[in-house]
Write a structure and sequence with these properties.
351 residues, Tetrahydropterin Synthase, Chain A, single chain, disordered C terminus, 4-stranded antiparallel beta sheet
Length: 351
Amino acid sequence: MKPALSLLILIAGFALYIIGSASLYSVSETEQVIITQFGKPVGETIKDAGLHVKTPFIQHVNRFDKRVLEWDGPPVNMPTKDKLYIVVDSFARWRISDPRVFFENLRDERTAQSRLTDILGSETRNVIARHDFIEAVRNTKDRKVVREAAAEGAVASIADARLGTMPPINKGRAELEKEIFANAAPKVKGFGIELMDLRFKRINYTPAVSQTIYQRMVSERTQIAERFKSEGAGEAAKILGQRERDLKLIESEAYRKVQEVEGAADAKASEIYAKAYNGSPESTELFEFLKTMEAYKTIITPDTSLILSTDSRFLRYLKSSEEPTAKNTTGSASADPLKSLPSLLDMVKAP
């Protein structure tokens, strides 16, 4: 009798454990629960953390996250208003605001992620298609480009002029994000989802367009580099020209000073010569003789032909030494101190 009673008690205890386990469930701080009976939600959403009771074996616990969830959409190719094809990569934050509606429409988070991709991707494509590309990449309307000041009088190149002016925008990137958010939030709300924020992660050209853009950027940078090179060459030429002018000025000033010194020296030498050779008639005659000899040496060369009259004073030392060449100051013939010197004709006639 006792063994049968013990077995009965054991079976009853096990049955009570099974029924208690199927009837009790716990809810954590990060969860919210929907109870379904035969696949249909019953009762209110349970959001309070703790231990709760349900009908065992009939009702089922469906748990949903109460925290802010992440949606990271795939990069999508889409055209802009100005016919540029770009790749837009965006992300969003959302949470389950109405678990009952969420369960009835989407069942789980994986389905919700797929539906968010469809809705947010579609709204992003619609907004991007209504605006130019510059609207999606800029935020500040009055942005100024800081660039190096061009040299005075220099003509700016086409590329440099483009760098100096920013295309005007009407809205900007932040406004486009708000527009996408405003359009998508009501649509996802019908699925029990609250869209909390949406932002662009990255916007880029498609690979086909990127290569063309890079080539254009290289061309513009090359034009700017060539402008700087030409300006540098102009400055170098200006410096070299200034150096040449300064050098010519220094040389001309030095030449002027040299000429002044030489002129002063020649004047001083002439004064010394004048004092030396004007002391007496003999010294004057000696001076004339020396200068005439120097003139002969310079003028009469092997390839020189002279046609002069016989009474030319230039030929007086080429004539016979017997002819008087000077008179004294009283008017009477005086003895020539050079009379004893042979003339060039005498030297030629001499055997």
